[in-house]
UniProtKB/TrEMBL annotation:
Complex and partners: Component of the cbb3-type cytochrome c oxidase.
Cofactor binding annotation: Binds 2 heme C groups per subunit.
Provenance organism: Cognatilysobacter xinjiangensis
Record protein name field: Cbb3-type cytochrome c oxidase subunit
Biological classification of the source: Bacteria, Pseudomonadati, Pseudomonadota, Gammaproteobacteria, Lysobacterales
Cofactor list: heme c
């Protein structure tokens, strides 16, 4: 906080404290000429009279003590702009202290899973259950409570993995995140093959998952040479993709952003930018292992897990 804002806050606090003291003093004292408490002239039903009786002294003094306490509180804990107070207390320090205590409890609770391989953890039903709970609290916002994902968010229950589905690769994804970038090729393709070039390439890409669809398909045939000149660098000549860079396999029936021709064309024309946030700092290594074990177990059923 800048010095200007600090002085602004200090002035507001000072005005409020002085104002409260003045208000108590002004309303508590009696002045010459003031009417008696019984002289309000407010009478109902002949015998019900409104009085103007000041607060008891002990009550007024309690208000003064409250003001004195507030001054001491501000002096110790801060509250005057950038002034931190004699106690040097801050909400950040309080949060970090509480977090360190809770993290220590979690580390103790999960100590038996520390450093264990993902596939070994996945054989422990209790560990998988814990991983499921962590997933529900941390990952379900994007991938859904059932982990089946949505448009733009991968389905974690099948055997399709853009960044490889090995245990170590899944752990790396959870801990360090991923960033998949599909560049926009609309302008480039238009320069290569005219205004219909994007649709031609989309037709060819769509045909990769259905080889018969390439037969007698004029648009796919027109798109093939442009694909081979531009897209093979990431997706390969056969369209199988490249897990080391997150380039998806175009020959299967899984489409992260939709499988219609219009959706595929939109991906080619405008590009995509998918980000999986890193959770190393949020979860730590051991809890990340538990989540990774749960995710890995989703596509490796009990029989596969037991075999592994």
């Amino acid at each position: 906080m800048s010095n200007g804002w600090s002085w602004y806050v200090i002035a507001l606090v000072a005005v409020n404290i002085v104002g409260c003291v003045w208000l108590l003093w002004w309303t508590a004292r009696r002045r010459p000429g003031d009417p008696k408490p019984t002289d309000t002239s407010h009478v109902w039903d002949d015998d019900i009279t409104e009085y103007n009786k000041p607060l008891p002294k002990w009550w007024i003094n309690l208000f003064y003590l409250t003001i004195i306490f507030s001054i001491g509180y501000i002096a110790w804990f801060g509250g005057l702009g950038g002034y931190k107070g004699y106690g040097k207390w801050s909400s950040t320090q309080e949060h970090d202290r509480e977090k360190s205590v809770q993290d220590a409890k979690l580390d103790e609770a999960f100590a038996s899973y520390k450093g264990k391989p993902i596939d070994e953890i996945a054989r422990d039903p209790a560990a998988v259950s814990i991983g499921h709970s962590i997933f529900a609290n941390t990952c379900s916002g994007c991938h859904g409570s059932s982990a089946k994902g949505a448009i733009g968010y991968p389905n974690l229950t099948d055997d399709v993995w853009h960044w490889s589905g090995t245990p170590d690769a899944i752990l790396q994804t959870v801990m360090d995140g991923r960033e998949g970038v599909m560049p926009p090729w609309g302008t480039v393709l238009t320069g290569m093959g005219g205004e219909n070039a994007v649709d031609y390439v989309a037709s060819y890409v769509q045909s990769l998952s259905d080889p018969k669809g390439l037969q007698n398909n004029f648009m796919a045939a027109q798109g093939k040479p442009m694909y081979e000149g531009l897209c093979v660098a990431c997706h390969g000549a056969d369209g199988k993709g490249n897990p080391t860079m997150g380039a998806p396999d175009l020959t299967d029936d899984y489409w992260l952003y939709g499988d219609s021709k219009a959706q595929i064309a939109a991906t080619i024309r405008n590009g995509r930018h998918g980000v999986m946030p890193a959770h190393r700092e949020l979860l730590g290594e051991t809890r990340s292992r538990l989540v990774a074990a749960y995710v890995w177990s989703l596509s490796n059923g009990p029989s596969k897990v037991a075999a592994n």
